[in-house]
């Protein structure tokens, strides 16, 4: 592969990553009623779409003459890529970033038949309609422009990837800290319950949140409550963006930790809205 061809391929990767990001944002923002910056990265890119498009283009060219073969092979290639991406993110960050478990014909919640069919159709569209246009557009650029575009975009991607990985690791660490705090809450409440043998069965039947509230009423869980609130409330804009981007994210090691963090984000947003409304009414 020549340097010019390589730079053109890199530029195609960024174009398809951007188009994929646009599709994901529209798909998620419309039901939510607000804009959601979808994707693992902070910038307007979904690299899995870029890799998927390049995989389809380079692997499926031999079967491009047949629409049925193109559809089936596109379905298989993109589904394999989505499954691998889901597995890789789960392995590195100990969190499940999307989950299709409630969809029919899914494989470990990482891929499902409906999405695979849609990706297969998208593969046909890319091969027959989109890539010929993108290829002509990229081919019209000079070698110097290709180098500049490819170099600049790759540098920005590297910076964004570093920031996004750091954010994801911080989020994973925060969830681990919340898990430890919740386990501490369970241990403390169980100790109190053991002292109240006459109320043992009644207390154990209560959910964890109610048990913590009982401790607060007795003045025994104030520090614990402050610790939980501090952990759940200590998040920044990048953490909130990532939680918004993956509304079905799961933390298998402690689902309650993720629930507590999402509750902290919701509480912060509600308080911010109240302050904004109060300021507007004051005017």
List keywords for this structure.
CmpB_TMEM229; 283 residues; 1% strand; 2 strands; transmembrane helix; transmembrane; 2 domains; globular; ABC transporter permease; mainly alpha; membrane
Strand and helix map with partners:
Layout: H1 3-32, H2 47-60, H3 67-93, E1 106-107, E2 111-112, H4 113-139, H5 143-195, H6 200-204, H7 208-217, H8 222-233, H9 237-245, H10 255-282
Antiparallel strand pairs: 1-2
Characterize the structure shown.
The chain is globular and about 75 Å long. It has a two-stranded antiparallel sheet with strand order 1-2. The chain has two domains: 3-162, no CATH class; 171-282, no CATH class. The chain is 76% helix and 1% strand. A hairpin with a 3-residue loop joins strand 1 and strand 2. 26% of the residues are buried. The chain has 283 residues and is an all-alpha fold. It has helices spanning 3-32, 47-60, 67-93, 113-139, 143-195, 200-204, 208-217, 222-233, 237-245, 255-282, and strands at residues 106-107, 111-112.
């Amino acid at each position: 592969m020549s340097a010019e061809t390589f730079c053109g391929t890199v530029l195609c990767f960024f174009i398809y990553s951007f188009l994929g990001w646009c599709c994901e944002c529209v798909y998620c923002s419309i039901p939510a009623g607000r804009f959601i910056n979808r994707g693992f990265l902070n910038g307007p890119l979904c690299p899995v779409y870029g890799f998927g498009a390049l995989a389809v283009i380079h692997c499926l060219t031999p079967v491009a003459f047949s629409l049925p073969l193109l559809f089936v092979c596109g379905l298989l290639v993109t589904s394999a890529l989505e499954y691998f991406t889901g597995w890789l993110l789960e392995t590195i960050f100990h969190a499940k970033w999307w989950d299709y478990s409630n969809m029919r014909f899914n494989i470990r919640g990482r891929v499902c038949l409906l999405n695979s069919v849609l990706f297969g159709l998208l593969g046909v569209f890319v091969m027959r309609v989109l890539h010929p246009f993108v290829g002509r557009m990229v081919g019209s650029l000079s070698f110097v422009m290709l180098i500049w575009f490819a170099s600049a975009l790759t540098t920005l991607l590297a910076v964004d990837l570093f920031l996004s990985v750091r954010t994801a690791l911080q989020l994973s660490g925060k969830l681990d800290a919340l898990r430890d705090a919740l386990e501490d809450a369970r241990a403390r409440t169980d100790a109190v319950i053991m002292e109240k043998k006459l109320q043992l069965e009644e207390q154990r039947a209560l959910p964890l949140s109610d048990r913590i509230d009982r401790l607060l009423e007795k003045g025994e869980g104030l520090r614990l409550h402050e610790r939980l609130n501090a952990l759940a409330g200590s998040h920044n804009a990048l953490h909130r963006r990532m939680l918004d981007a993956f509304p079905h994210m799961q933390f298998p090691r402690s689902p309650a930790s993720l629930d507590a963090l999402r509750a902290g984000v919701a509480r912060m947003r509600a308080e911010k809205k109240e302050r904004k409304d109060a300021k507007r009414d004051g005017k």
